[in-house]
Amino acid sequence: MKTYLVGGAVRDRLLGLPVQDRDYVVVGATPEEMQQAGFKQVGADFPVFLHPVSGEQYALARTERKTGRGYHGFAVSFSPQVTLEQDLQRRDLTINAMAEDAAGQVIDPYGGQADLAAGRLRHVSPAFAEDPVRILRVARFAARFHGLGFVLARETLALMGQMVDAGEVDALVPERVWQEFERALREPDPQRFVSVLRDCGALARVLPELDQLFGVPQPAGPHPEIDTGVHVLMVLEQAACLCDDPQARFAALMHDLGKGTTPPAKWPTHHGHEARGVVLLKGLCARLKVPVAYRELALAVARDHGRAHRALELRPDTLLDVIERSDALRRPQRFAQFLLACEADHRGRTGFEQAPYPQAQRLQLALEAARGVDVASLAQQGLTGEAMRDALRAARTRAIASALPTA
Q: How many Å apart are CA 175 and CA 177, to the nearest integer?
């Protein structure tokens, strides 16, 4: 029985990055031997064990054989005869197919160290094509390592395109698509996740609402980048610069979906795209089973980002409309996320990357004024129902008007 540190822990140590999780492969052992050594078995598909002290994962070396479509279509084989090289060969990228023995010696049968040095994301073997989840994972690694100069190998991108053409991506279940998407939103350059999926043709299959934005023009004055698809990638990039919040990043990316359904005869204008975008976004979130917190914030941004951009010219009552529709009075933290996504939209345009966004300060000031209204004093006047609602709204409108600086 021999134990090796594998995967991301080896890769990140060689890159000089913090090692977050440690996974191990055990060669030459049986499940019974692992259990006798005190390991606790978990997982139904193949034996994975938790170390009795550290709780770290130890998996028996295994091989996989394709038996059907999708990422469930595999027969897994594990036995003491499976070698370390055979186990590493089934992994996705060469930089994830390295191991380290107890003495710290790196075992690298597929050129992972050379690809690390070259900044290259390259598949290990043709077996990559057997699992469509790997397309999503590679796009996520592109988002993680873009800042380090990593690029996707041409042959790997070509293989991913062949997988899309063969229909493998169509076998992905929505929950797994969202899982990888949400992870990618947490990476340093989440826009690369989207662009890699588009480069291989997978975006049209898993996120068609986003894919149809590419090639749709916008007015050149406010949008020198012209292309709506390019714009939303720039917006996501700006959101990543402004915050680490995956919910705000998701909302920023999804804010302009409605422009993809504007009739070409009306290009480059997109009147009413906010309402159309809300409909598309609801469908996307339902399909991918997007969590409620992501969904509600994204809907608020899709519906009211245009009004937020006009905050400097809106009347106090209209500012209150934006605040109420965003549920900001009850959820001020979510309103801060809303403003971050709107600022990313404002800055996600060619030449506007460093532009100030005073609209956020004005809306935040309006919210603080509205929240400062003493509801209890109105209730003491005996007001109820519609009268109470009208009086409260009038008081909040007056508070906003008093708090905002005049030109």
A: 5
CB crowding 105-129: b at 16 or more within 10 Å, else e:
eebbbbbbbebbeeebbbbbeebbb
Q: 133-145 vs 154-165: helix axis angle to the nearest 10?
A: 150
Q: Which residue among 91, 119, 147 closes a domain?
A: 119
Maximum CA extent, the chain: 83
List, in sequence order, the alpha helices (H) in 207-255.
208-211, 228-242, 246-254
Sorted by sequence, the CB contacts under 8 Å of residue 74 that are 6+ apart come out as 64, 65, 66, 67, 130, 131
pLDDT at position 66 is: 64
Backbone φ and ψ for 352, nearest 5 degrees, come out as -110, 10
HSE, side-chain direction, 13 A CA sphere, residue 358: 4
* 366 neighbors 316 (Cβ within 8 angstroms): yes
Domain-embedded: residue 403: no
Number of other residues whose CB lies within 10 A of the CB of residue 38: 11
Give the domain range for residue 322: 226-366
Rounded distance between C-alpha atoms, residue 205 and residue 160, angstroms: 13
Cα–Cα–Cα angle for 335, 336, 341, rounded to 5 degrees: 95
3-class DSSP state of 253: helix
* The pair of three-digit structure tokens given for residue 165, joined into one six-digit string: 């053409």
Q: Say if pTM beats, i.e. exceeds, 0.85.
A: yes
Average pLDDT value for the chain: 94
- C-beta contacts of 219-222 below 8 A and 24+ residues apart: 219/268, 219/269, 220/268, 222/349
How far is residue 46's CA from residue 328's CA, in Å, rounded to a whole number? Answer: 47
With a cut of 70, say whether residue 292 has pLDDT above it: yes
- Whether 29 and 60 share a structural domain: yes
Indicate if 347 and 251 belong to the same structural domain: yes
pLDDT band of residue 227 (cuts 50, 70, 90) is very high
User: Is residue 222 a contact partner of residue 310, using CB atoms and an 8 Å limit?
Assistant: no
Q: Is position 380 within any domain?
A: no
Which three-class secondary structure state does DSSP give residue 61? coil
What pLDDT, in 10s, does the model give residues 18-48? 998 899 999 999 888 998 999 998 866 667 9
**CATH number assigned to the domain comprising residue 87:** 3.30.460.10
The structural domain count of the chain equals: 3
Residue-wise pLDDT for 228-286, tens only, equals 999 999 999 999 999 999 999 999 999 999 999 999 999 999 999 999 999 999 999 99
Residue 76 — very low, low, confident or very high, per pLDDT cuts 50/70/90?
A: confident
